[in-house]
Amino acid sequence: MSYFNSVNDKFFNPFCCKNREVYFECIDLLIEKSKEIPVLYETDARQCLIIYLQNCLYSLETENIGEEVGNAKSPQENASAILRYFRTCGWITPKEIGRTGDNIASVSAYCRKLVDAIHRIFNQDANSAITNHIFSIYEILKTSMGKDSARAIRPYSNILVPLIENECDLKNELLILKDSIREIMRVVMRMPDVNSFGQFLIKDELLTRFFNDYFFIKKSGLIPSYISEIDRMLRRLKRSELYEKMLNEYRKLKNTDEFQAKELIDRQFGELESFINFEYEQEMNYIDNKINTYYNLYATRMMMVLSNGTNIEHMLNRILMQLKELDGEERDVILQQLARTYQLQSVGFISRKSFERRKKANPNMTNAGIASEELTEEERQRLTDELLAEAPDRYSLDNVKEYLDQITFYKEKLSVEECGVHTREDAMMMAASIIYSGTAGFPYEVEFGEGTVETEAATISRIQIKRKCDE
């Protein structure tokens, strides 16, 4: 059956009109609007188009689409005309009165699919498309093999059909890669100067997108393992009970006999296995060869551009061959004349590193390693006492007790304000008293109040220092 028999005779007409860009954006707006509300009525659709036409960046060219549209008419008149035109072309469903009494302006299913396909073709990000399809095939097979998998309920529709779709998309992406190499080669051959080469390498998005995906496949190490695992799961799937379920489901869907169902499903499995085992590797090898050709072409073209169109390698080869045939005296004369045509200059600069002398390592250094023998208790105690004597603890328990003993306590309690924290030493003593509070042998306790107190040295929590009764 012809696909054109399924749609209106004027279905593709809006793409052939003068204002085709405006029509496409209008139908795209109506599709997005219909996603926001349960039912799209003509009033809402017309208002949406009016707002768009009032702010439209394009100028409507005057044309007759059953009735005239153009800049000479108001946005309201143009919006109504476009809606009627869409309904005539089958982009909007036939008139149907809704609950509000207004006509429903739903976008037809074929039009939605067409617009979605156009967006996917022209707006899709091709970067990582190949790896995405490989991962999708792997995930479909992995989930279908799981226990109580939902895909196993309808294995033909939920397993085999998505696998075939991803395989076809993967083939298309590989073809796009091959076409990208051809396009890169054509661009390189047209480059007239070195600046063009630099701009091509820095700015060209096609080159960046192509090599990003390609080098990820070649260097990540993931793809070969995924490919081998996909091949193993495909063979396992064909031997499992899901294969019989696929046959039964296909027979019911297509109303065919078992022989035809088995022939088609076996052919689809064969295509998948052939692509995974042979075609994918062949395509990647072809792309590898084209990449090498591209590098050689780029190097040759760069050399020709730098030499102003002269093949220097060929000229040098001719000179060397002629020098080989000359006798010694003539060869020396020609070499001296060639030497005069070239001027070689050595450019450098002097820094501190240029005249800095290396420092020799001291060969008489004693071994700084830690002795392996263990210390005796007396030696360990002696070293500990020496360390404490060299670095005494200024805020030890005894020092804090002595500091607080010098302060006069009223009613056995003293607040921070009454202590007179004037220096950092005073603040550190207050902090140490909090640490030692409740410690055996420390005759003071600290009670916390609410908030903080601003002193000359620091901000301290509101505390009260209390002398223990038994001390």
Task: Looking at this protein, list some descriptive labels.
18 helices, mainly alpha
Quick overview:
The chain is mainly alpha-helical.
Present the secondary structure layout.
Elements: H1 20-36, H2 42-54, E1 63-64, E2 68-69, H3 75-89, H4 109-123, H5 129-144, H6 155-189, H7 194-203, H8 205-219, H9 222-239, H10 242-254, H11 258-306, H12 312-325, H13 328-340, H14 352-355, H15 377-390, H16 397-405, E3 413-415, H17 416-419, H18 424-436, E4 444-454, E5 459-467
Antiparallel strand pairs: 1-2, 3-5, 4-5
Helix pairs in contact: 1-2, 2-3, 5-6, 5-9, 6-8, 6-10, 6-11, 9-11, 10-11, 16-18
How would you characterize the overall build of this protein?
- With 471 residues, the chain is mainly α.
- It has helices at residues 20-36, 42-54, 75-89, 109-123, 129-144, 155-189, 194-203, 205-219, 222-239, 242-254, 258-306, 312-325, 328-340, 352-355, 377-390, 397-405, 416-419, 424-436, and strands spanning 63-64, 68-69, 413-415, 444-454, 459-467.
- The chain is 61% helix and 6% strand.
- Helix 5 (129-144) runs parallel beside helix 9 (222-239), helix 6 packs across helix 8 (205-219) and helix 16 packs across helix 18 (424-436).
- The termini are far apart.
- The relative contact order is 0.05.
Largest sheet: 3 strands, antiparallel
Helical percent range?
55-70%
What is the number of E strands?
A: 5
| Range of strand content | 5-15%
Averaged pLDDT, please? 78
Task: Enumerate the strands of the largest sheet in spatial order, edge to edge or round the barrel.
Answer: 3-5-4
Order of helices and strands: HHEEHHHHHHHHHHHHHHEHHEE
Alpha plus pi helix count: 18
Low-pLDDT parts are none
Task: Kindly provide the radius of gyration, computed on alpha-carbon positions and rounded to a whole number of angstroms.
Answer: 43 Å
Write down the overall geometry: extended
Q: In angstroms, what separates the terminal alpha carbons?
A: 107 Å
Q: What is the SS-derived class?
A: mainly alpha
